[in-house]
Amino acid sequence: MNEALxxxxxxxxxxxxxxxxxxxxxxNDAAADVIALVTKALRNCEGIIDLVPSYTTLLVVFxxxxxxxxxxxxxxxxxxxxxxLNSTNTSARREVVIPVYYAPEVGPDLEEVASQxxxxxxxxIKLHSETAYRAYAIGFAPGFAFLGNTPEAxxxxxxxxxxxxxxxxxxxxxxxxxAVYPSxxxxxxxxxxxxxxxxxxxxxxxxALIEVGDxxxxxxxxxxxxxAQGGQLDGF
Length: 236
Prior knowledge:
The chain is an alpha+beta fold and 236 residues long. It is 23% helix and 29% strand. The chain is elongated and about 55 Å long.
């Protein structure tokens, strides 16, 4: 067993209708793999109404109007403990490729990041796009995946003053994380570019394109390719 894991997970009731499963004390790939497996195993479990995977934990919300909370937590514990950890199921990670148009017209912080990191714009793009990221958590907004880890050479803090409006599809970095804004929201991350890909499909059962445990890669595309794939240049 990987020493970075807590498995079987610690299970704690956090309210009358939710319990928290803890798989690790710090962020690591092994924990991300197991959280993804357990989330998948519990997704269609009768009585469970919501699953919120995070960096080291999984919050499970259940229906106490129709189910006894002690019976359902025992069921959750049984299912979670049945997951077989082996190199096959933990290495079969889904890979999501996100095309990105990196340019100042859609990435207003690209030049500043390059300047602050003593790099050229092309070097920033190369470092960001040639890294394989893991999806460690989904939060802030539906479909907003926190991806890590960005190369140390381009790690930048959040902006001192957040923008009131970050356009849909903006690709940004903050410290060791990177993300794609799945909707128009306020935000303080450093924006490098934009993707034409929709991160949220409201008609899909899974809702979000990226799920916890996925491997994510960014693929640079040209302005012409961005527009041909439905990308929009306005928003700022």
